Amino acid sequence: MSWSPETVARAERIMQRYPERRSAVMPLLYLSMLEDGYLTDDGMREVAEWTGLTPVQVKSVASFYGMFKLRYTGKYLVSVCTSISCMLRGADDVMAAVEDEAGVPHGETDDDGVIAVEHVECIGACGGAPAVQVNYELIEGITPEQARDLVRWLREEQPDKIVADDLQERFGGTRSFDWAIRETEGAVGPFPAFGPYGTVAEEDRS
Amino acid sequence: MADLVKITVDGKEIEVEAGTPVIDAAIDNGTYIPHFCHHSRLEPVGLCRMCLVELETPRGMVLTPSCTLPASEGQVIHTKTPVVDKAQEGVLEFLLINHPLDCPVCDKGGECPLQDQTLGYGPGESRFVEEKRHFEKPVPVSDLVLLDRERCILCSRCVRFAEEVAGDPLIEITARGNQAHIETFPDEPFSSYFSGNTVQICPVGALTATAYRFRARPWDLRKVESTCPHCTAGEAIEIDASQNQVLRFNGIDADATNQGWLSDKCRFGFEFIGSAERLTVPLVRDGDGFRESTWAEALDLVAERLGAVIESRGGEAVAGFGGARGTNEDAYAFSKFMRAVVGSNHIDARMDDAPAAELLAAVQPRATIGDLDTASTILLWGPDLKEEAGTLYLRVRQAVQKRGAKLVVVHPRRTGLDDRATWKFTYRPGTGFGTLEAFASGAGDFAEARKALDEGPVVAVVGLTGMTEDPTLATAVAAFAAGLPDAKILPVARRSNTFGALDMGCAPGLLPGRVSFGDADAVAAFEAAFGAVPDHAGLDTSGMLEGLANGDLAAAVLVGADPVRDVPDGALARRALEAADFVVALDLFLTDSSSLADVVLPAEGFAEKEGTFTNLEGRVSKVNRIVAGPGQTQPDWSILEEIARRMGRPMGFDSAETVAEEIATVAPAYADLRWRDVERKKPEGVLLDGGWYTPKAPAGPDVDADMVLHLARTLYDDGVAMRQSLSLHHLAPGGVAYLHPGDAERLGVTEGDQVVVVGSAGEATLPVRFDPSLPAGVVYVPFNQAGVPSLGAGAAVEVRSA
User: Fold this and answer.
1) Residue B176 to residue A41, Cβ atoms within 8 A
2) What is the pLDDT of residue B336?
């Protein structure tokens, strides 16, 4: 049940940020997802040990937030925003296209364990609606056809790393902020590539 | 005390402490505000929204929860406006969306806050036509508590109790949104010693107790207030019974003692009362077994045989064991019986497992449980309170957790309070005196803790850390505490009414009312009252057992005593009872001890008789009857009176109340204390004054050995009340030898291997479990577990691989 030395080193760096051990619970949960692909019981036990909480307290936190996954969510988690702006710009059709192409409904992972589909609440990209995320990497202005292409491409190519700008170029339409900082880090699994949460390796963070 | 403020509730001005939640202020002053999540012993959380009230503000009336509203000067609150009514109707309509209407088969139906408040404040009809939530039911959250999740209204009382009060946060609300529910982690049940409290505070029938589930309807229950028969803290309880069967204990919120809480042993340890194995007729020895007899025959036989021993060998050839499992009245009758009828001071309610009787009965300055709420530092040098006095454990925990009191724990092993201790010192059993000397001098690591004790007020909780400890160490610790500038002493010992029994003179050196043989005037008064009293102190339990075993004593009277299971050297107890010419036992069951008797007389037990208990702070509270004893059982006082009459020396009792009357007349510390005075003060009872014993520091030798034994009690064990309480018995840890991993390595054993522990009076083969909290060279064995031979009280032991 123990973590790899690399994950342990990251956890130690995270712990240094928090004078109260229990405050580190959320970043450590991301680490645990990085380790196992999703939050396993053993992973939550490990987090409990690091934070001095009981496992069920960790689970209470983990099960409260939608982005902590308690089940395996594929190699690629495709999240379609269906909040109002995206909905007005055709998100329901995008969602239907993704579900149809992936062959699974909201909340499920396909039989090969490659693609999981979910609809999500606002992901802050209303200016580029409709928007979709793959492993939390953003694509804006997507059409139902592009969404089908995206799912097919993911299944065929199965890239090791997902980078938002790259996806946007292949499958996106109008972006909300053309002047946005170029995003090159990319995600290596169905969890956000957030530096402070330790889910990006130190060497990638330049 | 905080400042008083005036607030107005529904036009009535009331004065309360500033900061009190308005809901508590209103309810305490006669205005009921409905609520589910709020509990006056838990922190306010504002979850259920049922307690909404209107508060007058400069911006007009504001609807606000009254549980999270602290009282402040000049507040004007309205609890019964149309807006409040509408809000409460809305809350209830929402709660009833998912709450099932299975009230006819729900344990809570009939005493359910949700039912009652729906009647009082509900909308009358629901607009909800969709399907309710469904869950698998029931799921066990512990061995004793079951959960029906669809009934849960997510008030989080259980969750908050587990974290805030019990310190076992093993139960939580998980899954956000529509699927939110109470859950424990896989393979990590809510195995708290206090889990049963959640059943009592659950405002719906979501949490139910295995011991009570489907057993009764609340409106069929008869109820009586009483005092817990298990630990010595004197918890106020309500006994519920139906059809002459005790079905449930619930805690009563007595501020002075348990504040509503009970340990699971106290809560569920009622099953022994209705056990099918209860004795119902007198038994007389017949060869290797017993035959049933009439009361007349059995009593005649006892009077004749005891009389013969007294005639040939003198009264002082008779030993009396017990008294701690009955009422004060029973204990007094036993004490008087031994002194006035038999003529012996050989009587002891302690089973060789408690500190000096004077320390327990008459120490001064003596602390109350409530003093823990104001102490700046608490010194705990005694048993692991979590194992031996659950509600006291909760009280100490609260003092540290809520108020920031400093806590010093000195113990041979980890204790339940270690996670809250400011300072924790671990020492090897047998080195207590040396440790105390170093501690008192404030040497080295002890410096800070020692300094904290000089700044009062201090409460020193003092008792035996284990059974291999020299009992005088507790006296030495108490003497140290008594020498501090501002400290009081709270003595602790095990076994329900031990303190009451000692107060009643069931001790070799004490007469009823905490009278010492050194007090010539008081002894003379007893001689006048009793006819005669032997003029010197008698033998204690181990002395009596040795005397019986070697023939110095000839007969024994056991009153609710099971020395074979209860004393550290059970083999000696067995030899003693076998060697005795005559043994009579008053008991509820055929125990390992009473089965060695010549005559066994069936006694009434708890809930079957009336009387009083005295707790560890010297607080007297009432014990009440709600069911009839099975078969031909009689109360102890009555059996002893019958024997006394047959021996030609009647004691003059014809009811428990006449015994109480005599206690009020002759026992100094209980002077003029009558049942009605105790009843009037319920549920708290009457706190006695009358300590005279200032402990003096005895010095003892420390034990030096490679391996020493820590022999201590656990909450659940193989005692007779536990064995006969089926819900609890399987929870006992069983025979285990805990070793430090280093010692285990030295011995060449690992977890699960068998080791032989050779103690001073016996040996046992036990599986090894690691316990890194133990000092090196210490083996810890839980006392009185099924199938484990007794090891004896000697600290030095030998441990080898089996």
Assistant:
1) no
2) 97
